[in-house]
Amino acid sequence: MDESEAQRRLLALKGAKQGLDVRKAFAEDSARAEDLCWELPGLLVDASKQRWDSEVVDALCELAKEADLVGATKDLFGGVRLNATEHRAVLHMAMRGDAQDQFAVDGQDVMPEVLDVRKRMLAFVDEILHDRHITDVVNIGIGGSDLGPAMAVRALRRFRQGPACHFVSNVDGAHVESVLSNLNPATTLVVVVSKTFTTQETMANAAIAKAWLEEAGVELTRHVAAVSTNLQATTAFGVSSNRTFGFADWVGGRYSMWGPVGLSIALSIGSDAFLEFLDGARSVDKHVQEAPVEANIPMQLALLGHWNQQILGFGSHAVIPYAEDLGRLPAYLQQADMESNGKSVGRDGLPVAWSTGTVVWGEAGTNSQHAFFQLLHQGTEIHPVDFVAFVDPTSDHAGMHQMLLSNALAQAKALLMGRQASPDEPHRHFEGNRPSTFFLFEALSPRALGQLVALHEHRIFYQGVLWGIHSFDQWGVELGKVMANELLPEIQGRSAGATHDASTFRLLSRICR
Questions:
Q1: Distance (Å) of CA 362 to CA 268, 328, 335, 371, 450
Q2: Is there a single domain that holds both residue 242 and residue 298?
Q3: Starting at the edge strand that comes first in sequence, how are the strands of the sheet with 316-321 ordered?
């Protein structure tokens, strides 16, 4: 990127555009509100309140062409091993594909296997929903085996047809204890989600859940299912083969809820709604392959993120869903974005010389307004905001939804317009001109949620391409796990004498005294 002519042009624009007053830009350009918006069926994305204009967009599109985002898209969908450090293709899009779609790895068509596993999984879902004996599902997994499904199940609450779904992820025993204590083993299905069936946190929680079922005297094989490729381990655990669903190594954890990892989603909303969820994401896959750079929404969002972070120096990004049901979206996007692009080594193996890995944070509106919007409006640093809202009510209380929408629109407007205060009340001054993007969906539906997630998946990928980093590995997760395994025997009192830094030694001594 440091050799890019387009990047040099963007840096040259910084002086003129860093102080761009968007309010004046609206007054001077009657087409701005239309030119900096994009649409998909059921969705309007409005980025006209951001600190950019047509000159910036033109330069960013040149950067996209230099970085060959179109070629990167072809590589992604063509099964190229873009996860180079783990020597894997990246084809999570196949998990939401249809029979007519073509996805291959090393020349091998993967769709027959994808569709076969999906058929088996949804048949199992239909069986559970038809039988109605199971009232509760406990999904045990962590990271991508938890964040996506938990977010989606909560988001699609109004579409629930099946059992109540609960999620256990943390290795803190309080988590599994608090969930199981309110459930009946005789009517509970435990779904253990771990590709290798060796994930420490997941298997520790699974062992507790298994003991809970066995103590109740239920038939284990009727009350457990697994998402894993380790059939030997799942069988030893007590899961029958017809209740075990696997997926290939070209599906990364944080991109995996479109397949068997999304079993809890399908159990909650039913097969038809789950297929609508997949279809929403698939429509975005088609969009990114067909739309030119200028009209390609994930590409434009990635370029906007590049402008905000690399040129304007905005290092964080707030995500505010104005929908309580979508309250876990910020946590999901934290993993999707920060685990993907929080990298300091480039594809060439050398340290990168630019900022990567935007900090993602947020909370549902209007709660967030009473927590941290003070900082967004009057803080010394600027944090771009994504607002996510829905035209149709997300509850049976239409009047409250109108209040919710008025708050979402008001906050975006207030960040832009600000307010002048009298000289004797400077604390009431809002400088305004603070950037935001507004995602306005017609309704919070399975299809809309699929669109939203896929838009971000592709945006994150394109930002990784722009920054020359590997977006599909997560080696930063490994070191802490290794050290935890080294420390555990000492905490358990089974060994001692390992070398530690002075701080760790003191803390360990306090724990083990």
A1: 26, 9, 13, 10, 20
A2: no
A3: 37-40, 43-46, 436-441, 385-390, 316-321, 359-361
Contact 113, 247 (CB under 8 A): no
What is the enclosing helix (H) or strand (E) of 108?
strand 108-109
pLDDT in tens, 78-110: 999 999 999 999 999 999 999 999 999 999 999
Same-domain check for residues 364 and 454: yes
pTM attached to this predicted model: 0.96
Q: Which residues are catalytic?
A: 339, 370, 481
If one counts the domains in the chain, the total is 3
With contact defined as beta carbons under 8 Å apart, do 210 and 200 qualify? no
Phi, psi (deg, nearest 5) at residue 18: -60, -35
| Phi/psi of residue 190, nearest 5 degrees | -100, 125
**What is the rounded distance in angstroms from the CA atom of residue 375 to the CA atom of residue 218?**
53
> What are 260-284's pLDDT values in tens digits?
999 999 999 999 999 999 999 999 9
What's the distance, CA 234 to chain centroid? 28
Q: Indicate the residue type of 282.
A: R
Q: Are residues 268 and 317 in the same domain?
A: no
Give me the CATH number covering residue 335: 3.40.50.10490
Q: 382 and 242 share a domain?
A: no
Q: Same domain, yes or no, for 271 and 374?
A: no
71 domain residue, yes or no: no
pLDDT digits (tens, 9 = 90+) for 274-320: 999 999 999 999 999 999 999 999 999 999 999 999 999 999 999 99
| Whether 248 and 397 share a structural domain | no
Assess whether 159 and 223 both reside in one domain.
Answer: yes
Same domain, 240 and 160: yes
Q: What is the DSSP letter of 260?
A: G
